[in-house]
Amino acid sequence: MNTLLRYSLFCLLSLASLASCKSVDRVLFRSPSAAFNERLPNLEVTVDNGPLAATEGSLPDDPKILFQRELSQNIIDPADSIKFGYVKLIVTSATAMRKGKGLQVLQMATLMAPSLLGVPLEYYQTNVRAQVQIIDSQGEVLGVYKGTGTSTVRVAMYHGYSQNDAGRLADIDALRQALTQIRPQIERDSDVLRSRLVAVGPITPLPGETASDR
What we know:
CATH topology of the domain at 57-198: Double Stranded RNA Binding Domain
Strand content: 15-25%
CATH class of the domain at 57-198: Alpha Beta
Number of strands: 4
Order of helices and strands: HEHEHHEEHH
Strand order of the largest sheet: 1-2-3-4
Radius of gyration: 21 Å
Distance between the termini: 60 Å
Largest sheet: 4 strands, mixed
Shape: elongated
C-alpha cells in the first residue's frame, strides 16, 4: 500500500507540472495602471527582501522587478536621468504556507481522477507586510508608508498553477497587494515629497561616477 501511495503522489506532482496548468508569465509582474497626475522625480531604487527571501517561493530578483515596474508605471518619472533621492522597499514580515492536505488524500484515494477534472491538489498562501521609504539625497527619510497583502494560489490543472509556479506567484501577488495599499498613501503626500526632494537637490555622484553607474 505504501508503494501505491508513493506512486500516486509522484503522479500527482507530475500532473501538477503539466503544460495544462495556467502560465504564470503574464500575471507575475503585472502592476495596476494607476499613475500619479504629478509623479515624483526619478529616484534610486533599493529593495530589502527580508523574510521573503526564506519562503522558497519567489526568486531573489522578483520583488525588485515588481517594485521597479510599479514605480516606473505609476509613481516616479523614469525618463529623468537625474535622481533626487532614494526609494526603498523593505519586506518586514512574510509567512508562506501550503494548505490542502485533505485534498491530497482524496486525490491519492481516487487514483488522481479528481485532478484530471481540475480539482486542486493544494494551495500556497503567503502573507506579507512591507514598507516603502522615500529618502532625500542627503539620507533624510521624508516618509514611511506601510501595507499588507495576502495571496492564495491553487495548484491544479486547467484553472490553477503548477507547484513550481504557485509558491512564486503567491509571494509576488501578496507583495503586489501591499504595494497597492502603499501607492495611494504616497500619492497623498506626493506634492510635499516632490518639493522636498527637488529642494534638497539630486544625488551627488562620486568622483568619476556617472548617472548610468548608479
